[in-house]
Design brief:
By secondary structure, this protein is α/β, with parallel strands linked by helices. It has a domain of 100 residues: Periplasmic binding protein-like II (D-Maltodextrin-Binding Protein, domain 2). 39% of the residues lie in helices and 16% in strands. The protein is built from 13 helices and 14 strands. The strands form five sheets. A five-stranded mixed β-sheet has the order 10-9-11-8-12, with helices on both faces. The protein has a three-stranded parallel β-sheet with strand order 4-1-5. Helix 3 crosses helix 9 and helix 9 crosses helix 12. It is globular.
Length: 348
């Protein structure tokens, strides 16, 4: 046996060992610990915010609960770790958390240089600006902020987008950055800056918390693409598949009309093959489903997530949409068949 063949064989064996160790990683750890360790924001209404008893609510929170339901059969088996923008990636890279579900923008550098993988886009957003209309009645557009001082959070894409936009528009500006979002908001309200900038969804959330919400107006322009989604570590494809397909299951459930209220009934009464496959009733050949088994889960994984947490539309509406204080329109976050961008591959 020549040296080249021996080298190839050893390389193949090493690949098998590495793949096996990767696939045995986070999913096994979650089962062993009995909970999902989820990294969230320090408090952003509609996405992840604790109450006085440290009970967390929000879209990002609900997604972690859906993962717990799919993997452990219990949506309450989650521990939440509040993280600043600066801390979030280190916490994931170090293994302190299993998944980062924290209004985090999917960018090329984050996807390729940090050892991370984005599992989907839970919320299509874009960066905007807010101003106090009573203090600055002349500001009707971002272009009216020439020479203004702008507050934002450090360690985010926000400050980079501001630099790009104002440079492209040949506008002068000053930037004040803060490690914590609440510090940036406080500085804005104290008049240390003329405007505050973040994702537009965050602007609506922060506006409701301000001393005089009606005095503050969100400017009409969106200056960036901010696809926000859950993040996992690279090199653990089994866990990546679970997180990714829990998201897809929530979107597919809404499209198929499956809700937290009817999913149990639909499992036994629906003759739609797509519903049957998603709920573990049948596979594409009409035999035993096997889709959950392919991810290392049982066949009730999607049913548990939908029943205990709801489909994507239910999660959106109660946290940021029509049933929430924010009342944000679905817009780009509507299903593809309704003119939006939410689209999931089929289960088959």
């Amino acid at each position: 046996m020549n040296n080249k063949l021996i080298t190839l064989m050893l390389g193949a064996a090493a690949s098998v060992v590495l793949a096996g160790s990767a696939s045995a990683g986070t999913l096994d750890d979650v089962r062993q610990h009995g909970f999902v360790q989820c990294g969230v924001s320090q408090g952003l209404m509609g996405f992840s915010v604790p109450d006085a008893q440290n009970n967390w609510t929000g879209m990002d929170v609900d997604f972690c609960r859906a993962i717990a339901a799919a993997v452990l059969g219990d949506a309450t088996k989650v521990k939440f770790t509040p993280l600043t923008a600066k801390e979030r990636f280190t916490a994931l890279q170090s293994g302190e958390i299993d998944v980062l579900s924290r209004n985090t923008t999917w960018t090329m550098s984050r996807d390729t240089s940090l050892g991370l993988k984005f599992a989907g886009i839970m919320y299509y957003d874009g960066q905007g600006f807010i101003v106090n209309g009573k203090k600055h009645p002349e500001v009707k557009s971002v272009k009216d902020l020439a020479g203004a001082t702008i507050c934002t959070q450090s360690g985010t894409t926000t400050e980079l987008n501001i630099a790009d936009y104002f440079k492209s528009q040949k506008l002068d500006y000053k930037l004040l950055t803060f490690e914590k979002n609440d510090e940036a908001i406080a500085a804005y309200q104290d008049g240390r800056c003329d405007s505050y900038s973040t994702d537009q969804s965050g602007l609506y959330a922060q506006r409701l918390k301000m001393q005089t919400p009606d005095d503050n107006a969100v400017l009409p322009e969106i200056i960036s693409k901010e696809p926000l989604g859950p993040v996992v570590r690279q090199g653990d494809d089994a866990w990546f598949n679970v997180v990714k397909w829990v998201y897809f299951a929530l979107v597919n459930a809404e499209e198929l009309g499956l809700t937290s209220k009817n999913v149990e009934e639909m499992k036994t009464t629906s003759t739609n093959p797509e519903v049957q496959r998603l709920l573990g009733v049948a596979s594409s050949d009409g035999k035993a489903a096997g889709f959950g088994i392919g991810m290392g889960l049982d066949e009730g994984w999607a049913e548990a997530a939908i029943k205990q947490v709801g489909n994507y539309g239910e999660i959106f509406d109660r946290n940021v949409g029509k049933d929430s204080p924010l009342k944000i329109e679905r817009g780009k976050n509507a299903l593809w068949k309704d003119g939006g961008l939410q689209y999931a591959p089929p289960v088959r």
